[in-house]
Design a protein that fits this description.
The longest helix is centred in the last third of the chain and has 18 residues. The chain is of the alpha/beta class. Strand 11 and strand 12 form a beta hairpin. Helices cover 30% and strands 25% of the residues. The chain folds into two domains: 219 residues, FAD/NAD(P)-binding domain; 194 residues, D-Amino Acid Oxidase, Chain A, domain 2 (2-Layer Sandwich). Helix 1 packs parallel to helix 8 and helix 1 runs parallel beside helix 11. The strands form four sheets. Strands 4, 6, 7, 8, 15, 16, 17, 18 and 19 form a nine-stranded mixed sheet that branches. Strands 10-2-1-14-21-20 form a six-stranded mixed sheet. Strands 3-9-5 form a three-stranded antiparallel sheet. The relative contact order is 0.21. It starts with a strand and ends in a 22-residue tail after the last helix.
Length: 419
């Protein structure tokens, strides 16, 4: 039996393991923590093919320069990391053009075109139970002028068969979501979108994998990848090694560091996001909300509400910035009629970010059996099943029905070189 070793047990690693196991592979997942406990655990759980647009966007250069020094802004860049991030930031801002944005959006939609079908099939899989809601997604705005601007950019979703977003008046959005305050001027409704409780999804996948013969190694760090010629032959765990036929790196924001061990340069950094999960909330919103002016989001789950958002570029660390947490609360209070209260749990996680905002998917040049799937930014849950399916096709057949050229690991200016 062909053996696939997956380094990283977040949602991308778990989804890839699922599809590889379905194809009959012997699969091992190795994670330095617990599977699904990292960035996959506290995010908003949105399954939104319509929101496949890349983070770098037209006009963001001017906006981000204004935001970058404000600790409570939607995008904060810690001044002390600017020197080490200068090259990454230069390329990120270079991709903030209309042409790059449109190409990136089309590539993201192509990757996401099977997302809803794959989630339907996963839901029907025996032994897999997770929390999923089909309530659509409601954008709401305090400034009416933002509505037309935003809806124009999302008309492209019709390309992959999704229904066009619908403009909603102030009266209509408040009818849809009575918790909203009169400060809201209107919104946009995306009817096909869904959301899942991400912890329930990763737990369900892990349970299924174990039950179906996948070896899951938690609290185990891969120290190195052992190379022989143009192949990786084993993962070095320090006191032992795990051999395999194929190796897939799905370590999220740490993927760049892992690939550096075999002389591969991929410009990956961490974009820290924050969330507040409120148990037994005093107010439960009816559907996921995107607070358009402040870029904060709200997800209703069974028995709780999650508020999330912000992007902090401060390097790989677990520090929590209290100002950014407070900014989430302030943003919500601008849109919601009464404050949402209840028992709060604060979370932060490292989103894997590339300069062009697209994930890195594919085979690593100069290697015959090394692959990477990382860099999904804020779309990890949404793109997880489509990514897992694509990577299983690539590893098993050497090709995929999805055009992976826009996601190629060697697409950046820095040419990949082996030591």
């Amino acid at each position: 039996m062909t053996k696939a070793v997956i380094v990283g047990g977040g949602i991308i690693g778990l989804a890839s393991a699922y599809f590889l196991r379905k194809k009959g592979f012997d699969v091992v997942i190795i994670d330095k923590g617990e599977p699904g406990s990292g960035c996959s655990s506290g995010n908003m759980g949105w399954v939104c093919p319509s929101l496949s647009d890349p983070v770098p966007a037209p006009g963001l250069v001017k906006t981000s320069l204004k935001w970058m020094m404000k600790r409570d802004s939607p995008l904060y860049i810690k001044p002390s990391v600017v020197p080490s991030l200068s090259n990454w930031l230069y390329h990120f801002w270079k991709y903030c053009s209309e042409e790059a944005f449109q190409k990136g959006f089309e590539a993201g939609l192509e990757l996401s075109k099977n997302t809803l079908r794959l989630f339907d099939e996963l839901e029907e899989e025996g032994g897999l139970e997770f929390e999923m809601h089909r309530k659509g997604l409601l954008f709401v705005f305090l400034k009416e002028g933002y509505i037309e601007e935003k809806i124009d950019s999302y008309r492209i979703v019709e390309k992959i068969g999704l229904p066009l977003p619908v403009v909603k008046t102030k009266r209509e959005v408040i009818e849809m979501e009575p918790a909203l305050s009169d400060a809201v001027e209107g919104g946009i409704y995306l009817p096909a979108e869904r959301h899942v409780r991400p912890e329930s999804l990763t737990q369900a996948l892990t349970k299924w994998l174990v039950a179906n013969g996948v070896e899951v190694r938690s609290q185990t760090e891969v120290k190195d990848l052992i190379r022989q010629g143009d192949q990786i032959i084993a993962a070095n765990l320090g006191d032992t090694t795990i051999e395999g036929d194929h190796f897939l790196v799905t370590t999220g924001a740490w993927a760049g560091q892992m690939l550096n061990k075999v002389g591969i340069k991929v410009p990956m950094t961490a974009g820290k996001g924050y969330s507040l999960t409120i148990s037994s909330p005093s107010i439960q919103v009816q559907q996921p909300l995107y607070l358009g002016d402040s870029r904060v989001t709200i997800s209703p789950f069974n028995g709780s509400t999650r508020i999330g958002g912000t992007m902090e570029l401060s390097g790989l660390n677990s520090d929590q910035n209290q100002r950014r947490i407070e900014s989430l609360r302030r943003s919500v209070n601008q849109y919601i009629r009464n404050p949402i209260s209840g028992k709060e749990k604060v979370w932060s996680g490292m989103r894997p970010m590339t300069p062009d905002g697209l994930p890195v998917l594919g085979a690593i040049p100069s290697f015959t059996n090394l692959f990477v799937a990382s860099g999904h930014a804020m779309s990890g849950i949404s793109m997880a099943l489509s990514t897992g399916s694509v990577m299983s096709d690539l590893i098993s057949n050497g090709k995929s029905d999805i055009d992976l050229a826009p996601f190629a690991p060697d697409r950046f200016n820095t040419k990949l070189q082996n030591d």
